[in-house]
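Mods, move this if it's the wrong board.
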Amino acid sequence: MDAASSPGSTPFVLLHGGRHGGWCWRRVATLLRQDGHEVYTPTLTGLGDRSHLLSPQIGLGTHIQDLVATFTYDDIRDAVLVGHSYGGMVVTGAMEVVSDRVKTVVLLDALVPRDGESVFDLNGESRAAAMTALADEHGDSWYIPPADASRYGVTDPDDVAWANSRMTAQPLKTYQDRIGATDRLWRHPGMFVECVPSSLEPHLLERARARSATDPRFHYRVLQTSHNAMVTDPKAVVELLFEARDLA
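Not the wrong board. Structure tokens:
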């Protein structure tokens, strides 16, 4: 990555998806830092390196507070905020508080709710039922056990082993909780990146495409890599992040 590609240092806040942690951004963060940028990779409560805090009480609101606190305590401003997968739910909620600190939002194959929607609402009844059954059978009825990275399209054996050694459980409540207001995310400049093949339901991709067709400040891009693009194609992710930074 050529330092000349960026005229100044832009803070990048990279938020992971479900059952992941800040660790999953390691390759992307390294490239961004080599280019002279500040990079923040917070881990949500109960996941990753904060898995020792896992409890049934952790919900979507807890994770939204985590992200807001990152902006507040690190005094982050004029940032590119990136949410992957479940992280899109958290980003959407946090934007109601931190939108004035965010230059551009990037939604990397991410869930993007409207007012009052939950992860289960977005994923549909069959997927919600399957996740609930998984929690009932293997998670004491309140957490979803760690996933295998191959489920997200990671195929390299070393990458699968690396990711699987870091995957952690996810509180079921985070998928059940309904989000509050979402207006600020939907009005903010941003980019949606569809990974092919995507893990999202088709109607969610259509929702993002429809916005890009009517909102000149919102852009839709397609990346030919796995859902876990930050692991399988970090250079391509970084290029899109630079594009998003320069759109605003």
